[in-house]
Amino acid sequence: MTIAVNHCDRLDRSGRQSSVASGAGRWTRPSTVAVLLWSALFAAELAAIAALCDFRLVFALDDAYIHLAVADQILSGGYGVNAGEFSSPSSSIIWPYVLALTEAMHLGPFGPLLINAAAACATVFALLRALEANGLFDDANDRPFGYLIGLLLVFNVSAVALPMTGMEHSAHVWASVVTFLGLAAAARGSAPTRLHFIALVLLPLIRFEGIAFACAAIAGFALLGHRRFAGGAALVVIFSLSGYFALMASRGLPLLPSSVLLKGYLANLDGESTSNLPAVVKNMLRSIATSYGLRLIMLGLALAGCASWLRADRKALIVCLTVLAAIGAHLVFGQYGWFNRYEVYIMALAVAALLWGVAQVRPRLPALQWSFTKIAVVLGLGISAMPYVTTALVTPIGASDIHEQQYQLARFAKSFYRHAVAVNDLGLVAYRNPNYTLDLWGLGSEQVRKARTSGQYGPAEMAALASDHGVGLVMIYDVWFPKGVPSSWTKVAVLRTTTVTLSQRDVAFYRTPLADAAEVTSALEAFKATIPPRDRLDIIAP
Prior knowledge:
Elements: H1 30-52, H2 64-75, H3 95-104, H4 110-133, H5 143-156, H6 169-187, H7 194-206, H8 210-223, H9 227-250, H10 258-262, H11 277-289, H12 291-309, H13 314-333, H14 344-361, H15 367-404, H16 406-417, E1 421-423, E2 437-439, H17 446-454, H18 459-468, E3 473-476, E4 490-496, E5 506-511, H19 517-528, E6 536-539
Parallel strand pairs: 1-2, 1-3
Antiparallel strand pairs: 3-5, 4-5, 4-6
Helix pairs in contact: 1-4, 1-5, 1-15, 2-3, 4-6, 5-15, 6-7, 6-8, 6-13, 6-14, 7-8, 7-9, 8-9, 8-13, 11-12, 12-13, 12-14, 12-15, 13-14, 14-15, 16-19
């Protein structure tokens, strides 16, 4: 791995051979130790999930299976979750296409798992190697500090929990950190590499939030004297986004995915208003009010302090200001939480920039001040890592919840009922389901999304959609539909789970007029005998 690092056998700033590189040996470097530690922690995470999920690979979020379902449709020439019907439930431009390759290799859920694990490991290793190359752990007395930073970075980039979401966020963190390391290398006289270019152009393709940092990084590379590199990246990004928008328009889909339009910042926009300022202000206030936003602000202020120290170094200042611009954009427009995955890329980027800035400032600090700085850095990174430590502990429980609710619903739909169904929590039920899956929440159905965004969605529309698509059974959270369900639907069962991380514990089963009552009852009875012991299926007499 040669991402923005110099040769390991270099001389430190005082002319001595780096103790990290030579005397300590390769296996005692903070980067190597951190990777070994990550490997052990990640293996323990996988083992805990397997133990709780009947030795199956189950992700902590049902959303991961939406992408896999879209990937299968891509292989069939479509795009969405149902054959012959276009929809855009994926939150990423490129992720479904990447998973289409792994689906073609018949890897199933192991495809995103392997990609995410590789991205998480590469992020930890590349960042620590860059810090080693910048002299942050040169002094032998700094070895414990290096190991502690390595441990904290494993959680600061959520390298343990994030891969188990099965989503594109681990790749987004990797692309963000590698792009930053390219900026850092450019600031110290090294030309950015092809890998830095790939990471930069992938930013907006992996996650739409990556557009902000991609734009800031392109400007940063240009200011650092790499105008051809910046111009080439800008052209690739523009052509890629234009191609995606044109493809969506040709399919009659909105330019942005339904997940973006129905959740987060854009969902708060008032289509009748001439100004989006209220939504922007609301999002900014939420950033200030949440613990995630406050942690990000803390890191931003610390980075601004480093930038002040380095103000005489124009190139280092450009690097710091580039990251601060991305932090500011997330504070204004970004989202937080949802299994701590929405903000992790900017937290990882802020931590990477702060540690790099500390490495640049270190030669100017006397021994006592450097000791206090190390304590402050460890405390700051520890505070920033806290949510991701908690998420790592909760992830096996989250996977168990998916197994005991969504996986069971998918088993029922595919193996017992075997007809078209409707759900409000899309994912496992749609993945590899040969029968139609109607998404009553709107991520996988353009008809539902349009009805919801227009404010014209209720029991009548739900009944019409179910009838149009031949849906005989509906599995939903009742509380998600405050207007109620169609009067023609009959509640026939309730699946009761002991979920901790999911939105609701109880899933209501409704039979529509299109279903055969005896067939539904028979399927429910057969299914009831196979559910996990912690679940309970209450069948309601017709």
